Amino acid sequence: MPLEWSDYVKLALASSAVSSVIALAHSSWKDGRAHKRDARDSALTAALVLEQYARDCRSMMYKASPAAEEAARTQSYDPVEDIGLPQFQFPGEIEWKWLNHKNAVALREFPAMLLSARRFLGATYEFEDPVIYAEELEFQCAKAAKKALELAAQARRKNGVSKWEPEGGDAELGDELNRLVTDMEASREVFYERQAKMHKEMLA
Question: N- to C-terminal Cα distance for the chain?
Answer without folding.
Answer: 111
